[in-house]
Automatic annotation (TrEMBL):
Keywords: Membrane, Transmembrane, Transmembrane helix, Transport. SUPFAM superfamilies: SNF-like. It is a multi-pass membrane protein. The chain crosses the membrane at residues 12-33, 45-69, 97-121, 156-172, 179-197, 224-249, 261-291, 311-333, 345-369, 389-408, 429-451. InterPro entries: Na/ntran_symport, SNS_sf, YocR/YhdH-like. It comes from the Bacteria. This is Na+-dependent transporter of the SNF family protein. GO terms for cellular component: membrane. It is found in: Membrane.
Length: 455
């Protein structure tokens, strides 16, 4: 009998192409913007250590599981889980993983596109020299003035979505492969240069202490939940994106090795971004816990006081924006591929539909910084509530369902069939960690943050 993957085979032929596209999907605003502000809000090193543990023991095994699932089904996430559950002889209700992922992806993209829009706007602001010889106070005031005005935020967000639409409309492989390949090396070089610069002008020692000397008393249960959620967010899992990318995984290549390269690159970029941003934060007496604006105040200040800083700064935000594009494409891929494969919509029409929905949903985030500033949900603005709800709850929940499906419902021989290049020990290690650590780990963190009295 033909296996599912033999019947629907298509995909990248070289591991390097797959690694480049997947790295593009994972490295984005999560690394450059969110990691530092979350670490800043949650006490630094202790948060970073818990985050790294979550990456290794929970998120990475789930990422492999998603890719294995995609590689088995070779279709959009919904059809993939449906087909694979039929093959496994379990209820097709499991396709809910795909549905859940598509919806979560759209919600994430609704606020992700707003931040990407900020980054676009900052390319032109820096280039125009708006931050030349600025002070931290002025950079903060400019950021607040920018947030107070919904019109331009909407335009920049619209531009970001338009670019994603154009990229995805021409097809995932052609659209992002090249971009990711050019961008990633450039991003590394720029971040290293920026880290070196800010280590010289900023307070490098304080930054290193903050990032690497843990004080676990500063970490709350909510901080642990945020670390777990961010591990999912940064590796783009829990929304079906890696199931969609797994459909294109090249044959006869080690999935675990390709994933390891992606995870290492993703982690390095986050740490480098921290090393670039925190020395400036500490030398300026900006509160590390100032929240989502951290990168948009510290970095413009850093560049604004450097020779030719307006050009370098514009380049930095250009790269942040490009990284956001390759991630935004991944966020849209599950829903777009479902519309075009299952409903047989022409791909550009499917992409347009998804972009339109996201733009409408995004209005809530844009207005939460100005017109609707007064509205609060559980003590948070609409934007923060969306961010919290998706990253800390939906993504880990989606990952948990995937871990249960792949770890407990799919047959071991089928998994072995997809991961046949890996040695026996490595395969067993992944399988064991997925079943006994990743899945229960998410449950334990959920329970301990939501049932405060527990343990
Ligand atoms: N991993 C991306 C980042 O760190 O910016 C965000 C993301 C992209 C999450 C794609 C989920 C996803 F499907």
């Amino acid at each position: 009998m033909k296996t599912l993957s033999q019947t629907k085979s298509r995909g990248w032929r070289r591991s390097w192409s797959f690694v480049a596209a997947t790295t593009g999907a994972t490295i984005g605003l999560g690394n450059l913007w969110k990691f530092s502000y979350l670490a800043g809000e949650n006490g630094g090193a202790a948060f970073i250590i818990v985050y790294l543990v979550c990456i290794l023991l929970v998120a990475m095994p789930v990422m492999i599981a998603e890719i294995v699932l995609g590689s088995r089904g070779r279709s959009n996430p919904i059809t993939t889980v449906q087909d694979v559950s039929l093959e496994a002889g379990v209820s097709t209700w499991w396709q809910g993983i795909g549905w859940f992922g598509c919806l979560a992806g759209l919600l994430v993209l609704s606020y992700y596109s707003v931040i990407a829009g900020w980054s676009f706007a900052y390319i032109s602001k820096l280039f125009a020299g708006d931050f030349d010889a600025t002070s931290a106070q002025l950079a903060g005031d400019q950021f607040n003035a920018f947030l107070a005005e919904p019109q331009s935020m909407l335009e920049w967000q619209g531009l970001f979505l338009l670019i994603i639409f154009l990229t995805i409309a021409v097809g995932i492989r052609r659209g992002i492969g090249l971009l990711a390949r050019l961008l990633m090396p450039l991003l590394f070089v720029t971040l290293i240069a920026l880290a070196v610069y800010s280590s010289q002008v900023g307070d490098f020692q304080a930054a290193v202490n903050f990032m690497f000397t843990p004080d676990f008393s500063s970490l709350t249960r909510q901080g642990v939940l945020a670390a777990l959620g961010h591990a999912f967010f940064t590796l783009s899992i829990g929304v079906g994106a890696m199931i969609a990318y797994g459909a294109y995984v090249p044959d006869k290549r080690s999935i675990t090795s390709m994933v390891s390269v992606v995870v290492v690159a993703d982690t390095l970029v986050s740490l480098l971004a921290g090393l670039a941003i925190f020395p400036l934060v500490f030398s300026l007496n900006i509160a590390p816990a100032m929240g989502p604006g951290l990168m948009f105040v510290a970095v413009p200040y850093g560049f604004g006081n450097m020779i030719y800083g307006n050009y370098y700064g514009a380049l930095f935000f250009l790269m942040v924006s490009l990284a956001a594009i390759t991630s935004g494409v991944a966020l849209m891929e599950p829903a777009t591929s479902w519309l075009s494969e299952r409903l047989r919509w022409w791909r550009p029409v499917a992409a347009l539909m998804v972009v339109a929905i996201v733009w409408l949903l995004g209005l809530a985030s844009v207005f939460s910084f100005n017109e609707w500033k007064g509205i609060s949900i559980a003590g948070m603005s609409i934007f923060s509530a969306l961010d919290f709800f998706t990253a800390n709850i939906l993504l880990p929940a989606g990952g948990l369902l995937t871990a249960i499906f792949v770890g407990w419902k799919m047959r071991r021989e089928v998994l072995r069939d997809e991961l046949y290049v890996e040695g026996r020990v490595l395969f067993s290690l992944w399988y064991w960690v997925l079943r006994y650590i990743a899945a229960p780990g998410v449950l334990v963190v959920f329970l301990s943050s939501f049932l405060k009295e527990w343990v």
